[in-house]
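Dear Dr. K.,

Following up on our conversation at the group meeting, I've run the structure prediction for Helix-turn-helix transcriptional regulator from Dactylosporangium fulvum. I'm pasting the input sequence below exactly as I used it, so you can double-check it against your construct before we proceed with anything downstream. Let me know if the numbering doesn't match what you have in your notebook.
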Amino acid sequence: MAVRGGAIGLARFDMTRGQRFEHHVHREHQVVWAPAGVLMVDVADRYWVLPPALALWIPGGVRHATIALRTSVMQGIYLEPDNCPLAWREPTVMAVSPLARNLIEYLAGDLGDPARSHAETVLLEVLHPVAKAAIELPLPSDERARDVAHLLLADPTDHRSLDELARVARSSPRTLLRLFLTETGLTFAQWRAHARLQASIALLAEGQPVARVAPQVGYATASAFVAAFRRVTGHTPAAYFSRLPGPHGDAPVADRRDPGE
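The predicted structure tokens came back this morning:
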């Protein structure tokens, strides 16, 4: 379904698990949001996982791809560059508040020009960047480091040491440490933690409890997983998902309480 009018256009896409929109470019700025499900967005080998409380601003002209990590709805919000007061030049994560959600749903209806113009103005005023919440995962460009990254993405439970992974990549541990830091901005340990936590988002969004998710993404205990999640996102898994709807717009589908809360 597509809606055009004023400075903002909307398009809604129902996506099955694993479905993707391959790399493409829009002239308009785009906000990618999943009102239901979980999306991963790839922009120039930087990856973001977006549950329904978060959206990603993609500037016009920037190549990107989107994949559904579970059955999802993708809401594309397209903004004409000439009429848009927002001018972030880099991909930017935004919080989608209940008010923003309601405004997007309202703009998808059949509105006259005055009502649409007013709603668009308010929506642009309530979209704000969030410094911490989304888990961003940049990929290294060097082939040796990228090979290691792909191994860890394919299996978050891979516990091989840096020395062991360096031998697989025909590199040295020191070289891998340098490559990850210079090419991703993260230490190797930080990058591995981000990869594991990205993998956990879709599992948590499906309603799986923390105690079941932790070992699936490489953590020996639920408490260790919760501590890592809090360090990266600023929230425990329960707090992170506390405002997210279940698959039918109701409460979360499973108890996501964390140990010690």
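Two things stood out to me. Residues 244-261 have pLDDT under 50 and may be disordered. The first strand starts at residue 2 and ends at 3.

Best regards,
J.T.
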